[in-house]
Amino acid sequence: MTAIKLPNFIKKQPVAVVCALVCVGLVAAIYFGKNSLAQANDLLAQKKSDGEHLRDNVTNASRLDEQFAAMTQAVQAIEARLVHSDQLAINKQYFYKIGSETQIKLTNLNQSGAVSWSKNPGKTTYVAIVYSISVDGTYAQLLDFVRRVENGGHFSHVRSLSLTHSGGGENGPQGTTMISLSLSLELLGLQ
């Protein structure tokens, strides 16, 4: 077809020409639109996920104040049970009180120092304050002493415990044998 015959063909077959152009346009749109359709689907999925996340945040935010209050109460309750490493007299008084309640004889009580669990000691305020305790009493009294220390006002962890007979057949009150208890324990505290 020459340049003169092409316009005549367009004039004689306008529907066919328009259909051919539409087909070429659709093929081009499909070819170039495949990538953009996949990207649009990915973007839609991401926006949908972000929207669900924001909806969950708005839903959960309604209870945020009461959760904050509960967490604050829990932290205050924990901090009330902590020992302070610089308050040696108060810390020892805790053990003397338990000893008098259980009617045992406290023979040795030493605070050995503080041990940090963190690899970066500057960032943590919680430490384990180590105590070495020796007491004498009956088996029931010593058992009561250990239970009161474990269930007492401070968080405790028994590191080691040893029992020995405290004399050659020596009898205590009511004909019971006296026993010596050596205890090494940690109390959770603040530096």
In short:
This protein is of the alpha+beta class.
Question: How would you characterize this protein structure?
Answer:
The chain has two domains: 57 residues; 108 residues, Ribosomal protein S6/Translation elongation factor EF1B (Alpha-Beta Plaits, 2-Layer Sandwich), CATH 3.30.70. Helix 4 crosses helix 5. Helix content is 52%, strand content 25%. The protein has 191 residues and is an alpha+beta fold. Strands 1, 2, 3, 4 and 5 form a five-stranded mixed sheet that branches. It starts with a helix and ends with a strand. The protein contains five helices and five strands; from the N terminus they run αααβαββαββ. The longest helix is centred in the first third of the chain and has 48 residues.
Strand content: 15-25%
Average pLDDT over all residues: 82
* Quaternary organization: single chain
- Helix-strand sequence: HHHEHEEHEE
Low-pLDDT residue spans: none
Structural class: alpha+beta
Count the DSSP helices: 5
The largest sheet, given as strand count, sense and whether it forms a barrel, is:
5 strands, mixed
Q: What's the number of extended β-strand segments?
A: 5
Molecular shape: rod-shaped
CATH architecture of the largest domain: 2-Layer Sandwich
| CATH top level assignment of the largest domain | Alpha Beta
Q: How many separate domains?
A: 2
